[in-house]
Amino acid sequence: METVRFTAALAMLDDARHLLGVNRWASAISRAYYCSYQAMWAALGTPPQANQWRHAGIIAHFVRGYWFAPEHPRTGPGLLEHLRRPLQWLYQKRLDVDYDIRPVTSATAVRAVDIAAQVCQEIQQRSGGLAP
């Protein structure tokens, strides 16, 4: 696992929690998404092509679970399928707040931060990384 990147993800999670506490819900969602993105990148390591993970691609690779179980079959559900829809939802909410400037509720922001925390927890548990 890329420790520097995972440490940055945990800092973003802390920022997202702070933003929740001051009712900056859209910003909390954005920080929660980028926490998840950086945490997934830390777990997956170097992207297979180019020099950057694409957003939909990183989610797909992450939920497959090859980063902690390389022998997992290439067909069928991933080992972290329970995170696929929440991560896709979080990505869409990040687009909503950062590009479309859509209003959000505190409940939406709380859910976003919870998803980010869950991603960090999964990575920490499966790789022995830093605690979220």
3D shape: globular
Largest sheet: none
What is the typical, i.e. mean, pLDDT? 90
CATH architecture assignment: Up-down Bundle
Radius of gyration, in angstroms, nearest whole number: 14 Å
Write down the CATH class.
Mainly Alpha
Descriptive notes:
It contains five helices and no strands. The mean pLDDT is 90. It has a single domain, classed as Up-down Bundle (Four Helix Bundle (Hemerythrin (Met), subunit A)), CATH 1.20.120. The protein is an all-alpha fold and 132 residues long.
List the helices and strands and how they pair.
Layout: H1 3-21, H2 25-44, H3 55-64, H4 84-98, H5 106-127
Helix pairs in contact: 1-2, 1-5, 2-3, 2-4, 2-5, 3-4
Provide a brief overview of the structure.
The protein is an all-alpha fold. The protein has five helices and no strands.
Keywords:
globular, 5 helices, mainly alpha, 132 residues, Four Helix Bundle (Hemerythrin (Met), subunit A)
